[in-house]
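Researcher: Before we compare anything, I want clean individual predictions. No alignment, no superposition, just each chain on its own. First chain goes here; please echo the sequence and then give the structure tokens.
Model: Echoing the first chain and its structure:
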Amino acid sequence: MLTGLPHSHVPEPEDSCIWRWDTRVGAWRCDAIHYAETRTTLCELFGPRFSDEVMKPEVISFAKVELPKLRPEQTEALTAWHRADYRGQIIMPTGTGKTEVALAAMAQTKTATLVVAPVRDLMYQWHRRILQAFEYDAGIVGDGLSNIKPITVTTYDSAYIHMATMGAGFGLLIFDEEHHLPGKCRREAAILSTAAMRLGLTATPQRSDDLHKDLDWLIGPVVYDMPFKQARGSTLADFDIVRIPVALNDSEQRTYDQCSRTIQHFITSRRKELPGYTWQDLCKESGKDPQARHAQRAYYLKQSIENRASEKLRVLEDIFRLHKGQQILVFAGSNRMAIEVSGRFLVPTILSHTRKHERHAVLDGFTNGQFEVLVANRVLDEGVDVPEAKVAVVIGGQGSMRQAKQRLGRILRRTGNARATLYEVICENTKEVHRSRKRRRSDAYERTIHRRV
């Protein structure tokens, strides 16, 4: 809020649209994200008449700094961020050490920092990494906790809810998995903060809605972009992808085909009256139209059959036998399938609603070799460290190239010369074939040998 200027005096050139006159208090307002640039402008315009009462971020003096020596590409990324006035995005493949770059940035800037992560698991992982690196017990905002400290970790959902009250307390914002930020509400986490320094981290910035373009002003421009092929076989482990097609049994195929006919018949009939009728229109009508609701249920039943095909469980058992003694990640397409795999093979699973202590116990057990298999739906797609796993099995999922790269990245952290293997179990004659093809368009899959078993 800028006081002392009348309504007739626009604080910046009239073509600027960042300022709004607030009739409630008779003052000019702009979003906190513009604080650094407007402060400079106002100082130049008004000199000693300008007074700044915005809270100043605390200077941090860490008791210790124990960070691994940065590799050349990590140093290059950090240097590029410095040269861009401490604002920008660093894009590096999963497993190449983006977290180490961010911790090094925190050590060098020595300013109050807020780390924003997409899920609770990653939030707590950041808390542990900060504790290990600096012996600093960071504050936590999220998962029912609200403990704000000069170094704090939070989730995107908690950040946009609370940033209006805590946004002036940090000089550096670190957005892990930054592609979550441009959403309609979550972008508030960047807009409502005065932090001049901003660092975005991701392996996959692109979004299907093109909102990733807004990251340039929410965080800063891309300052470093490391191609996947540069990391493969050097920073990351080399890998194979094995595609295993399976067939639905007779009962599953009959139900699947009947559901397909139901959906097609409904949409075709609707398009006779409304030529532009889409799946989104069907979802809108499902709350009031029984026929639309029936077609929607048929769609979800089709998905369930793809995700939980009985032949997938048989193939999964063969893979477990083949890699006995190795740690294996299983990525399911639904919570129900993850629970079914967990129950059949007596292996632990982590889902979005799994409680914190159970999550930590399962992840620690998997890391130290107590559990050989870990099953998840989407919880392990992003960021969670599982450095020893070199085998992953995808038995369901979206057609998203981002999800494909993230899941592949979970097994590519280099351990000696160990080679990673990703199995993709696909139901033939279903939509899963199309989703699999879409996933393989990612640059992570370029020049990769796909063995069909």
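Researcher: Okay. Second chain, same rules.
Model: Second chain and its structure:
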Amino acid sequence: MCVGLSARVVRLQSNGTAIVDASGARREISARLLDDLMPGDYVMVHAGAAIAKITEEDEEESESVLGSLF
């Protein structure tokens, strides 16, 4: 089973990476798969890479589901 986590893009870096905030934890991830990222966008992160842009509502739902599991 593969699990992706939602995160908000905090900063884009010139080396093709981004700093994201995932439930308060900041991480550096690859942003090379998505061309049109901007700070404030929400993304789905899997294996250290942003794999899809998502809406804020998607992010809230994801957080709610994960919160109910733990």
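Researcher: What stands out in the second chain?
Model: The chain has a mean pLDDT of 90. Additionally, The domain at 5-69 is CATH 2.30.30.140 (SH3 type barrels.).
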